[in-house]
Amino acid sequence: MIILKINRINFIMISLVLTSCSVSKKIQKDLYASSAEEIYFKGISVLQAETGESLIDLHEDMYFTPASNVKLFTLYTAWKNLPDSIPAFDFVKKGDSLILKGTANPLFLTDSLSVAALAFLKNSDENIYLTDDHIEDDVYGLGWSWDDYTYDYMPEKHLFPIYGNVISVDKAGDSIKVIPDFFKNKVHLTPSVKESRKKDENEFYIEAPADISNKKIPFKSSNQLVADLLSSELDRKVILVNDNIDYQFKAFREVPYDTLYTRMMVNSDNFLAEQLMLRVGSVTKGTYSVSAAIQYALENYMPDIPQKPRWVDGSGLSRYNLFSPKSMVYLLKKMYDEIPHDLLFSYFPRGGINGTLKNDFRNQSYIYAKSGSLSNNYSLSGYLITKKGKVIIFSYMTNHFPSSSSNRKREISAFLKKLHESY
């Protein structure tokens, strides 16, 4: 009787495996058939999260432009190296002087998260100085679109960002509110607007007839401007200094890194991604350089990554980036194995719930994934919970379609629904 029960259990398990295999083969066969008639490129890789068993592959080892799917690699690299909280700034007190140094913190004075740091500066009795230090990178990354400098998704990188390196404008009738107020006289009303900012200076332009809510425009950054903005905010002079004294700085810590990770991923915030990689470069290589952080991550955390990527920035703004679907699921598997699952999933946009997946994947709350979008390119990579409670890792990458991304999103949505119901 015991032998019969064991044989029955084995039969059921084998049947389940064979059923799963047949489902995978059917889905993959349909994918190949449909892709033969398509005029754009797509690559897909799907595997079981627990076992790493490959379920479905289509052009999984080909290179694609990933757009913001790059933020998956930024998330993992930052998580491995930045376990605590980001310093609002570094500081040292010398006699009657308080000397500040930037730390690539992207959130200083962007919202209420900087309350403690701001209070520390306002309550200081010392004269305040800012060191004239710089990042090793250019303010824009390799392969970024140079004429996107007026858009809020591409602020300049900087060692001491302030207000997120953007101004915020609200206009109702003749009433205009500008944050920071420092720039109010630099905002001009015009009948029509071709560019909302002059390329090399901080002169801003807003359409006079229109009402505007929370319009964000990047400003041209510099250390002197940071000192001036701090002076305006603190209502006292902050002096920029250039000396080579090796002070023993201390970190003024305030914001947990988890807060940055969630904001970066859910909102697909390019600025946070770039600043986090600058911070990683400082921690691992002693230099505020995104490329240094990338090199360190590839050598130390991903030496066996399939189809070694061309990885050039932290955000995915660059069209120089090249990744394969197989390299995406490789990383997602590493994160699944190393990061507590509840914490890991909390970093991701969720289908129909929040972030970049709120509107495009409605009624699909079983999806936890990062989208990536540039003109003519759309990708989605992440995790999916099946009806049976299994976790599946997937990457679905599409490039070079001539129309909008809406058709690709519907295509991916239907595919993920099939995975959800089939496994």
> Which fold name corresponds to the CATH topology of the domain at 24-81 and 262-422?
Beta-lactamase
Number of helices: 10
Span from first to last CA?
Answer: 31 Å
What order do the strands of the largest sheet run in, or round the barrel if closed?
2-1-15-14-13
The portion of residues forming beta strands comes to 15-25%
CATH top level label of the domain at 24-81 and 262-422 = Alpha Beta
Query: What is the makeup of the main sheet?
Result: 5 strands, antiparallel
* Rg estimate, integer Å: 25 Å
Shape: globular
Helix content: 25-40%
Strand/helix succession = HEEHEEHEEEEEEHEEHHHHHEEEH
Q: Briefly note the structural class of the backbone.
A: alpha+beta
> Quaternary arrangement of the chains shown?
single chain
The CATH architecture of the domain at 24-81 and 262-422:
3-Layer(aba) Sandwich
Low-confidence stretches: 2-6, 11-18
**What is the H level of CATH, i.e. the homologous superfamily of the domain at 24-81 and 262-422?**
DD-peptidase/beta-lactamase superfamily
What's the count of strands?
15
**Mean residue pLDDT:** 92
EC number: 3.4.16.4
GO molecular function: serine-type D-Ala-D-Ala carboxypeptidase activity
Pfam family, one: Peptidase_S13
Family: Belongs to the peptidase S13 family.
